[in-house]
Request: fold
Amino acid sequence: MLEIDNLSHVYGGGSPNEHHAIDGLNLSVAAGELLCIVGPSGCGKSTLLRSIAGLITPTGGEIRVEGDVVRQTPDNLAVVFQDYSRSLFPWMSVADNVALPLRRKNMDKRRRREAAQEALESVGLQDAGRKYPFQLSGGMQQRVAIARALAYRPTLMLMDEPFGSVDAQTREDLEDLVLKVRGHHQMTIVLITHDIDESVYVGDRVVVLSKAPAHVVGDLKVELPAPRDQISTREHPDFVHLRAEVGRLVRGHATV
Amino acid sequence: MRRSGARTARRREVGTTMRLRGVRTAAFRWVVLLVLVLVWEAVTRLAGSTFFPPPSAIVLRMHTMWFSGPIGTLFLTDAAVENILPSLGRMAAGFAGGALAGVVIGLAVGLSASAYDYLDGVLQFLRAIPPPALVTVFLVLFGFGLRMQLAFIMFSIVWPVLLNTADGARSVEPLHLQTCQSFRLSRAELLLRVVVPSTLPKMFAGLRLALSLSLIVMVFSELLPGTTNGIGFQITDAYSTFDLPGIWAGIVLLGVLGYVLNELFLVVERRMLGWHHTAQQLAAP
Reply:
């Protein structure tokens, strides 16, 4: 589904303050997988995600999505950004926000509206379509952003610290929402986070990045009983063991 | 959910208190206006100067001169039809042409980083020139008459619209652009649904400046020789016959026009930018 070969990216190459964000990163994600990428802050996670999305062109290496080398944003890819308040369009109603990306999918107005409503229902916001984003709480706004991605029916959904700006309770709700919607939609999800517990709780697999320049220092399979539950999963011995292991990997490379 | 409930409640509360405060200030505003007019009336009557007729005399003059016509023409007299309407027509045409040019060129300049960098200095220079200084250039180019007046109004008002629009188009939220890019919206969709709406607040700031400026330069263009009608012409005409109430009538009419046009503009702006104002109110602590 997604292969990353020897990826590297340098900001401001040649200048005195050039910054190596990624160096020699290899990664492969299977179709249908929910992969969490964790790493210390500032390690180049967002650079990696923006490279996969074709929003920036990496200075070295290659990214392939469904076999095609990424040169611009691949088809059927959706991104959920951390900053929902700057990613949603404040001049459009919630329904229009969700329906906007469908404009290039050859759907007429009625079908776009139906698809938007369906996506809003799947994130529990069936009554919010006519409101404006700023009339909703932060958690609900991020739900709208997720609904917008779902309505687009991506095969690959990228999430960049999607729950980084909401409170703890909302964060848990949104984690469970992601687990729920992945069951209904056949898609691969790559979720970037700096929260170790979150990566183990949500992921099928956790990849740990080193501090910048980022490369893979750990790749762990998460085999926890399904369905996952905020209370019982987090007290499961495997969960405790895995989060400790991920924590060691992240820390080990954050302080070197 | 509780959070959003509190939010709605707060918004409702903010709404009612603001409305109450709005009614009170509006009432107060009329009282202040009334008092000022009464003071003006008293002082001019006491002074008895020919140069400063009392407001009652000015209003009377405005009535007989412009608003005592037959009902068929909405009470407008021939003088009103001959002077007020051409002025409004010039202003409307000049404003429309200048605003359209400003928006289109502003978007084009704002969307191209290099165009903006190259042209910024030139545009600031052109904007800084006081329009009346250019009148002779326009006379040479177009001669006296309507064509010159329209070109002059358009040229004078295009800069605030153009520069504000370019500024707005340049400062579109980068994450909005990345969102559009990641959903692979076409350039036309991007322009129409995202760039233009995010430019609107600044565009409207420019348009509002242009509106008041268009009234000023419209009158100025009518003070020039070669004009045979218009409010500006009426004022110079009254001056040549030393008709002071006539001069004052023109001045008051222009003030009222400027006020009414600005209020109309604000109504349109509130409709178009409702999302912007509400979002800003909620963002404020």
About this structure: Chain B touches chain A at residues 3-4, 7-8, 11, 173, 175-176, 178-179, 181-186, 189, 193-194, 197-198, 200, 275-276, 278-279, 282-283 (CB under 8 Å). Chain B has a mean pLDDT of 89. Residues 2-47 of chain B form the longest helix (46 residues). The radius of gyration of chain B is 24 Å.
